[in-house]
Amino acid sequence: MKKGKKLYEGKAKILYASPEKNLAIQHFKDDATAFNNQKKAIIEGKGILNNRISEHIFSNLNQIGIKNHLIKRINMREQLVKIVEIIPIEFVIRNIATGSLTKRLGIEEGTVLDYPLIEYCLKNDDLGDPLVSREHILSFNWMNVMELELINEQCKRINDFLQGMFRGVGIKLVDFKIEFGRSSQDNNIILADEISPDTCRLWDSTTEKKLDKDIFRKDLGNLLEGYQEVARRLNILHEQSNIRPIKFPKPKAVKIKKK
């Protein structure tokens, strides 16, 4: 499918115009970023894996009635999606305490929450995506009450589904970030962006080994191998058979001469 002009470029994806009205082509990049874009790297093959994993998740969510922007996956790096006006709020759903939650509130890392916690962050890189309240959202007309309640319910349903899906392949869904937008076709609110190891924290159920972007954030090893493991467990890795993990050379031992 022929790509038109660039409509938007973010840290991990580019959106291009498509030949079809109200539809766009979403391209997944290999860029890895962390700490509000302060840490950056190019990891060859990451975009291919995120494209496939996100398509798998969005397709399954569509089957349980969660409307989203995905039309179809076009190729290894691109999807055909509905054009939406993104709501400037990131919805963070937490099942286990980690990351900024532990830093802000002093909660012990790994604490299992009694029920899923939904947090709202203003989608603004220049401000560091600050945490905002329900009252902020309503006061500044980012959403109305009905829209916010609708999205909250969608967040809970998505969380229930993802927890079950990942639990079935031996992975804990620690937390994840999702975005919603208003469809350019009918103005309905639908799930957009992506759901992948870039936007989720995923831990092995037994070892609690990280299988997400924390590998890159915390220098825990090979990011691509973690993403490949998620795809393998979801039984979708066969299409990525040409992606090989990056092998980093082992540091040479340094001999210290005794005086």
How would you describe this protein?
The N and C termini lie far apart (68 Å). The protein is globular, with a radius of gyration of 19 Å. It is of the alpha+beta class. 26% of the residues lie in helices and 30% in strands. α1 packs parallel to α6 (223-233). The chain folds into 2 domains: 6-84, 2-Layer Sandwich (Phosphorylase Kinase, domain 1), CATH 3.30.200.20; 85-224, D-amino Acid Aminotransferase, Chain A, domain 1, CATH 3.30.470.
Write the layout of secondary structure elements.
Elements: E1 6-9, E2 13-17, E3 23-28, E4 31-34, E5 39-42, H1 46-63, E6 70-73, E7 78-82, E8 84-86, E9 89-96, H2 100-105, E10 112-122, E11 131-132, H3 134-139, H4 145-167, E12 171-183, E13 189-192, E14 200-204, H5 214-217, H6 223-233
Antiparallel strand pairs: 1-2, 2-3, 3-7, 4-5, 6-7, 8-12, 9-10, 9-12, 10-11, 12-13, 12-14
Helix pairs in contact: 1-6
Uncertain regions: pLDDT < 50 for 5+ in a row? 245-259
The topology string of helices and strands comes to EEEEEHEEEEHEEHHEEEHH
Q: What coarse outline follows from CA principal-axis ratios?
A: globular
Number of helical segments with 4 or more residues: 6
The first-level CATH class name of the largest domain:
Alpha Beta
How many beta-strand runs?
14
By secondary-structure content and strand pairing, the structural class works out as alpha+beta
Terminal-residue CA separation: 68 Å
- Mean pLDDT across all residues, rounded? 92
What is the total domain count? 2
Report the sheet-strand fraction.
25-35%
**Which second-level CATH architecture of the largest domain applies?**
2-Layer Sandwich
Helix content: 25-40%
| Main sheet: strands, sense, barrel | 7 strands, antiparallel
CATH structural fold name of the largest domain: D-amino Acid Aminotransferase, Chain A, domain 1
The CATH homologous superfamily of the largest domain corresponds to: ATP-grasp fold, B domain
